[in-house]
Amino acid sequence: MADEINMNSLVLMHYSLTLTNGTEIESSFDDEPVEITLGNGDVTEGMELALFGLKEGDTQTLTLTAEQGFGIRDEDNIHDMPLSDFPENLSPEVGLSYSFESPEDGDIPGTVLSIKDGAAKIDFNHPLAGQQIIFTVEILGINNAHSEIESN
Fold first, then answer.
1. CA distances, 99 to each of 46, 49, 79, 108, 111 (Å)
2. Which of 122, 132, 22 is nearest to 70 (CA)?
3. Tens digit of each residue's pLDDT (9 = 90 or more) over 23-62
4. Are 38 and 51 in contact (CB under 8 A)?
5. Is the distance from CB of 71 to CB of 127 less than 8 angstroms?
6. CB contact set of 42 (below 8 Å; sequence gap of 6+)
7. Is the pLDDT of residue 6 over 80?
8. DSSP string covering 95-137, please?
9. Dmax over Cα atoms in the chain, in whole Å?
10. Between the CA atoms of 70, 73, 75 and 77, what dihedral angle is there, to the nearest 10 degrees?
């Protein structure tokens, strides 16, 4: 009997993420397959749900809502930052994304929306927040062996 993907599966797969207008964001189909462990945050919760119950050899394409993909855009994630906070050798440019240090989780990406009056307006929402995502997967292998081990 073929293994089905469950909450603890180690999955070897090809995947692609595409916007609803057809723009491909990323894909592993022309490259090495990726290995993810469900429940580890390797992919979004919505993507994990899309994988449940699939078996080796299955292919699936689903349209994920913004909530299932990279979340809803949150205006509270937009902050003004004094230009003096940027390193001397790095002047912010509108439309470019930079990596900012966050007190909790290391680096977080932020995109410069505008610059005026000595400050840059930075959007810390995920660049794909608020967008529907077409998620295509091809399951190459499933290992449920480690799901037998009880986690602490």
1. 25, 29, 14, 6, 9
2. 132
3. 999 999 999 999 999 999 899 889 999 999 999 999 999 9
4. yes
5. no
6. 36
7. yes
8. T-EEEEEETTTEEEEEEEEEEETTEEEEE-S-TTTT--EEEEE
9. 65
10. 10
Whether domain 75-123 has CATH 2.40.10.330: the reply is: yes
Decide if domain 10-70+128-148 falls under CATH 3.90.180.10.
no
Single-letter amino acid, residue 13: M
Where do the DSSP E strands lie in the chain? Answer: 10-19, 24-27, 34-37, 59-64, 78-82, 97-102, 106-116, 119-123, 133-143
The burial class, CB within 10 Å (0-12 / 13-18 / 19+), for 120 is buried
User: Residues, the chain, total?
Assistant: 152
Residue 109 to residue 124: CA distance in whole angstroms: 6
- Write down the pTM of the prediction: 0.77
Query: Which regions of the chain carry the CATH code 3.10.50.40?
Result: 10-70+128-148
What is the average pLDDT across 91-113?
Answer: 86
Amino acid at 78: I
Q: Note the Cα 40 to chain centre separation in Å.
A: 13
